[in-house]
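Hi R.,

Here are the chain sequences for the assembly we discussed:
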Amino acid sequence: MRHHLVLRVVSKILIPFIILYGLYVQFHGDFSPGGGFQAGVIVAAAIILYALIFGIERARQVFKPEVLLVFAPLGVMIFALVGYAALALGGNYLDYDWLVANDTAGQHIGIITVEFGVGLTVAAVMTLIFLAYAGRTRDIDDEDW
Amino acid sequence: MNPSFLLAVTLLLPLLGAVFMALTGGRPNVREAVTLVTAGLLAAAVYALLQDVLAGGQPTATLVEVAPGLPLVLQVEPLGMLFACVASGLWIINSLYSIGYMRGNGEQNQTRFYICFAIAISSSMGIAFAGNMFTLFIFYETLTLSTYPLVAHKGTDEAKRGARVYLGLLMGTSIGFQMVAIIWTWIAAGTLDFTVGGILRDKIDPTLLPILLALYMFGIGKAALMPFHRWLPSAMVAPTPVSALLHAVAVVKAGVFTVLKVIVYIFGIDLLADTGASQWLIGVAAFTMLAASLVAMTKDNLKARLAYSTISQLSYIVLGAALATSFGILGGALHIATHALGKITLFMCAGAIYVATHKTEISQMDGLGRKMPFTYAAFLVGSLSIIGLPPLAGVWSKWYLAMGAVETGMWIVVAVYMISSLLNVAYLIPVVARGFFRPSPDLVPQSVGAAAAPAKDGVQEAPLLCVLPPCLTAAGCVVLFFYADEVIALLRPIVQ
Amino acid sequence: MTGATLSGIVPHLPALQVVVPLLAAPVCFLLRRGVICWGFATLVSWAAFATSLVLLQVVLADGTIRYEMGGWAAPWGIEYVIDATNAIVLVIVSGIGSAVMPYARRSVMAEIPANQHGLYYTAYLLCLAGLLGVTITGDAFNVFVFLEITSLSSYILVSAGAGMDRRALTAAYNYLVLGTVGATFFVIGVGLLYMVTGTLNIIDLSERVPALQHNRTVHVAFAFIVVGMGLKLALFPLHTWLPNAYTYAPSTGTAFLAATSTKVSVYVLLRFLFVVFAPSYGFMALTLDYVLLPLALIGMVAATVAAIYQYNIKRLLAYSSVAQIGYMVLGIAYGSVEGLTAAILHLFNHALMKGALFLALGCIMLRVGDVTMRGVQGLGRQMPWTMAAFVTGGLSLIGVPLTVGFISKWYLITAALDDGRWPIAAVILASSLLAIIYVWKIVEAAYLKEPPEGRVVREAPLSMLVPTWVLVLANIGFGINAEFTVGVARTAAMGLLGGAP
Amino acid sequence: MLELFLAKYNYWIVILLMMTGLYIVVARGNLVKKIIGLNVFQTSVFILYISMGKVAGGTAPILTGRDEIFSNPIPHVLILTAIVVGIATTALGLAFVVRIREAYDSIEDDEIDDAEKQDMARDLEGRLP
Amino acid sequence: MELLINVVLLGLLGITAIAILTTRHLFVATMLAGGYSLTSAALLVNLDAVDVAFTEAAVGAGISTVLMLGTLTLTRRREKVKKDFRWSPFLVVLATGALLVYGTVDMPAFGDPNAPALQHIVPEYIAGTRDDIQIPNIVTAVLASYRGYDTLGETAVIFTAGVGVLLLLGRRREEDEEAGTRRPERDA
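And here is the predicted structure of the full complex:
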């Protein structure tokens, strides 16, 4: 699809917005539908779109697999560590009430942090999976579709 | 020494010996010295225990509680004492003989042979001194497993087949029937302890007793009751010392010993006598006795003939037990010892003949008696003891067995014993007779084996270590004739 | 660590039991380098084992432990409930894990391409966390989530054998398809239960389901959970994924999965059958008698017969596993305290047996590279310690006295005879006798045949022999003194039948 | 009758969908098709779950301050988790398919079976008598 | 109205499912599967499950379709036509379906506001979200807090899938083929 100038231009404009939307979904999940998982998928979709249009190699340069390989476990660790933090502060595992003095604030912080962890892992893993598939072949050409 | 400790020692000594044998495997002389020393020590330990028992002691040792209500217990009682004496005493003689045979025959894997032998002896001690049926069963199985490599010793296809039948039948019957019987007993009686007078009275529906008894009797495959006798002829592919172990020292004796234990201490002879639950067993045992004798007559292979003879002799004991009278039990127990002495003599003679001439078929042995006079003399003594002629030990056990039959008024059983003894004559005496009275077919005997003498007329015995042991056991048959009373006195308490 | 912090940690051990390996997995992923990952995973396994031992001790002393995840009281939050039944399963899982890990380094080096080691150990840790999570949880849906962690990581462990044999891939694929169908069935069952009760907490369910014993939705939920778990635990005839998966997985993967994963599924089945559904009610009782019992019996015999005809020993043992699962299900199907005791006992004992056997096979794989009947020929002399371990494990499988196998059989038969079910006792015995045939095939090949000419083999390295022998000795140790295991199993069985723990 | 239909039609159709998905899984020999079947099967289960949480006249479970009837949020939460599990399974399954295709040059189970039979025969070739 | 949409969407799903079953073109099947997900997402919205619908659309119609297409470019496009119809799978599926239908008899009616599931736990969740956690989206509150531990598990599942795909496809194909010929060390 490298030839399609229109597609490339439109995507170039669109992709930042998709990612922005992903971030919105990520951090607005408390109020409206959405949350870490959906956000992660959306961000991953944006990256996949980028890879499809600008080529896998270029995508690899922008979204470095080495970084993704850190992000994927990092998300899980963030989630798990919130649990440990609650433990360390005297509560049960994952008991957000103990994170800060105020229970409700603790819940908010806990929910936002773990959702962030989920989003990070989902986005990184989804992108990694896609890149792994793509890495098995030449660039995906028009004829392949 | 503390008797309980001694009891554990009897089990551990052979195992310890096995470890030393493994360590010294490379040096045959040291290895065999270890075997003999271990055997001697074991006999001494058993003798010390015997003194304790004769003084009225009843040493007990609880090893471990395997599961709640299922302890491994060792306890000495007269019957077990007798078996232990037989096994430990004959081990010395058999070890001497093994050295002569294995060296004379140039067998492979001798270290494995001695180690397994020692483990088998340890298991036999466990069987002899088992304080409950559970313990007995466990050692019964370890005995089977430790003797498997001995039966398969030669590693040929024939040996493997024989060993497979051996293992399959013994394991099959013990797991398939005996274990069920034990679990049933456990559920019904709540205990498995060997108790004088039995543990099953009023615990189980009398109509079910024959079934439970059948599970035990056929489950004790080592007693070779027909139709589960096939393993014994199959196992004759083993080297002769192993056959001696199977037929005299440990395995089949462990079988009939277990039969006696079950009948005396699990069922109790009174219960069997009252309910008649063992009537059917009299028939089966009598049939086995006669049928095996008849089969023995048809066998030309000497070891096969002896194997069937053993099957027949074992049924003497089972029959004695099935009569459920004190004479029957005493006779059966005594027969364990007398038959062991007689049969080990015969097997060792057969092995000596094989080492010296490599002959296995009776028809080839014409005239051999003149060349191997000591061997044949021992064979004759052993035969006569098994047939039951004075002044040899066999007469006493047959006498008591017959008395047991008379006591129950079953004249037909008496008749069966008589007929069977005649059959013994018919299949054992010809072997000796051919050896002495037929001319030797080939003047040049095949000289195989390290010690075979040059081809000349005259005496050509097997090596000393092959000939001396059967002569010793033959002498033992005579000695036991005079000391049978003491054995009976030892056994008395079990039937009171 | 001071005593005060230590005692402060004990109340949180239920959570740590699972979340330590769970957090360790991403850390292991970041560590990348094979040897470092291995060392780390080994330490984590040992920590998990230590945790499970403490938990078992606490449970036996003080009774059931309940732990509220996130501080939300049950049934609103997810809770961990530990009683004797799952405490012993936790010990099995983490114990086998800690025995397999020290062994894994050499075996994995030989069987898996170097750049996959880090991922392989990560998958192992995830599998460990998943298995522990399934076992410990008291929430029906949480079972599903952790079951899926377990399943996905098991598929990965199986497929890691692809470097040795391409069939590992198809084996893993089939495992994945059937495993997912099983998990989905389980989810349907849980959903139906939720629909009529409004709760997912197992204890809460156990209080609400009895009132609905005539509700058809509950019956269907019951059926779906049994079938779903039947797929996961390879109940005959739903076992088709198992033989290939165990045959082509790397040695360490097979040893770990064979000893733990089906056991955990059996445990889940136990928990649902006896705690949630209480099979004293008509429909459930009928299912035990007329579905599970016959399937267990047929499976025991059919799988044993199939094992006899196998040439590849890994496959042979895999079929034997199907048969052994039959024993466990049989114990479950009795529905009595004796039966459940036997089932739980066999759960523990079989893990020891199969762990030892597959580890011994892994040693053979390392040195000979061939685990068929041909491969073991003459090994009795060439690898005496390995083969001795294998033979002892084999004897245990047959059920020879003084091994754990005997204890299992003893209690299974006792349970059968207790109810007067003679024919069943006969089938158990027949199946044990058939087991002699396949074990003996191997023994004869190893000891009575000469090794192929020109093959020179050394004994396996100590790092692999020691873990193998630890399990072998456990086989004998718990076979000689089964008081502890029998006691725990009985407590567990009574807990299950006494309603909610 | 109509009342019964109205009360249950949602479930019945969903059951039919589930059956179709399951049928694709068990009856089709193409490995990709099986995964698609699995997806259909699982998606249908999701609908089953969500259907049970629906309340007639209810709204999405988002607090707006007004007093409303909410549909049951618990199935939603469960299914969110289940969807994630589903996509994880799909990704892994498809990765297997890619590798199988590379190793066997086929994604049809009968062809793969044949290839494996040959593998098996090769295993047995060196078998000693 | 709601009911009508519901029926139409369910009908559409049925047609799509049958089409997926019958088509032999894998590309078409993949696209239809994407459509199936999208349609079910619409249905889920209609059933008040907006979060789920969102996710289903993103995952079912998005990511999983991309993955399937990726697989197809690496494998092949057409499904082999096999003539033989086997009864066993059909009967298994039929039995499963029949069992489920049997189970529906005692189910609470669709949309029943008095269903048991609504009486237990849910009221506390709604009140708790309003009073303790104080965020509007009840689903998020339950997902991340009440049942947050499930979500941790779910994240671990995704991570597991990542580990698996990397292990299987993380390297170039040639490397794998080279590795495939490796034999275990005989001596080390």
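Residues 34 and 61 of chain E are 4 Å apart (CA to CA). Residues 1-78 of chain E form one domain.

Let me know if anything looks off.

Best,
T.
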